[in-house]
Known about the structure:
This protein is α+β, with helices and mostly antiparallel strands and 342 residues long. The chain has nine helices and 13 strands. The strands form two sheets. Strands 5-4-3-2-9-8-7-6 form an eight-stranded antiparallel sheet. The chain has a five-stranded antiparallel sheet with strand order 1-10-11-12-13. A hairpin with a 2-residue loop joins strand 11 (277-283) and strand 12. The protein is globular.
Amino acid sequence: MVVIKPTPSFYGDDQLSAYLSLLKLSAIKGQPSLANLNSIVRAHLMTIPWENTQMHYEAAGYMDVAPEAIYKRAVVERAGGSYCFGQQTLMLGMLLAMGYRAYGCTGRVNTAPEATDPVQFEARAHLVLLVQIPNSQLTPSETGNETYVVDVGFGLGIVRPMLFKDGEEMSGLFPPEIHRLVKTYHPGSSLDTTDPSTQPFAEEWRLEINTTRTGQELPLGSWRTLYQFSLNQYYLEEFEWMSHMVQSHPKSFFWNNLAVVLYTPASGESTEGGTKMGVKVMMGPKITYREEGKYEILREMKNEADRIAGLKEYFNIDYPLDAAVNVQNKHGALGPHSWCFT
């Protein structure tokens, strides 16, 4: 069992108030319950885009994921979001400020293209949060020992807190999508996992999904690994170093692609109080929208002017047209090498 102690936040009360106001959740301040954790995750996904546009459209080409930097970009300026290290840093700080017990751990993303392929883990390059509910906010059905996986930083991943339990399954964005959490080991581990005294040192957790990259349901009993993480705590300084690797390594997804994801209320649903969501995705030369029973290409982009216009129209990320000069000759530029999984 994981026991997380209360920890002070690196954000202040005024910053928490501004964040909750942005999410239109000011009324839940001071009430760190499971229900409100669900509300925060949903509202965050629909308000702050998962994206890496700064790497490609700004002259510095740098994603600053330090707490004050991501707070300024996402909450104060409302200029955009970040990828996992920025998104989860913001979420971690705000959850701590709300009174939740939480910490960050890291994982390896599976880059194997097909579900039937053996897992191909990259270096640790993803940030996962583990969260517990304060005893004062527990419902009669909760014991206080429950831990939840929170991840607003994977783009197309889990969309609500997931109970941290071996074999736990949770519905995804819409049917037939299901996520599963399983206890496992790294396939390349040198530790003897048949030895009970060694197992805790090798133990990791794997988040899986029952669909392909393009959303088709896998055969019954088949699962595709999204990422695998361990429970060791990592810290803000390490988030920044890992982020630097992610945005500067030539093999990194973010080095090679400009990508944006933003969730929206599904048709007929309200922003506050609704349950179903759709998702807008910019990847390669297309902007697409998916919700249950619906798939639509919102825009096909032929050049950087098209993409800059699409960022503003569908994601409220605003760049001047001359920002296109910063992406020239980069792998993220629109061109014949661009690819799309949507």
